[in-house]
Amino acid sequence: MKPTVLILCTGNSCRSHLAEGILHHAAGHLVNVQSAGSKPAGYVHPKAIQVMQEIGIDISAHRSKHMDEFLQTKIDTVITVCGNADQACPMFPGQVHRYHWGFDDPAHATGTDEDILKEFRRVRDEIKLVFEAYAAGLSFALR
């Protein structure tokens, strides 16, 4: 059975779904990747879906989930992706590994539609860089 990596954020609408999609694409053959939030928004942000489609990753079937859905699941690694220090990043008890890689929340971007898309792309690209490096490390460690 593949180890489970749970990516947590507050709203589970943007950053955690970007990270879930990227990590699943890069290392889904090695780990079971899930995402959830402490206060789920109840939807996956349409611009998150759009900017992931731009890089060939489809997250349109994802849904916003509460972290409590995973309380009975054996979680090997928890990764939090909340960016701002004043945001309440959830803690998950009992995991073996825990990482915190904070990213700005593109859902708070303002300006024109193109300005907002630029912010989603910027955050997606930052997440892609970090999670592809993590996936490469997993590939090495799980050989």
UniProtKB/TrEMBL annotation:
Recorded superkingdom: Bacteria
Gene3D superfamilies (UniProt xref): 3.40.50.2300
Keywords: Arsenical resistance
Any one GO biological process: response to arsenic-containing substance
SMART domains hit by this protein: LMWPc
Domain (Phosphotyrosine protein phosphatase I): residue spans on this chain: 3-137
PANTHER family with a match to the protein in the record: ARSENATE REDUCTASE
Name of the featured protein: Arsenate reductase
Annotated organism of origin: Terrimicrobium sacchariphilum
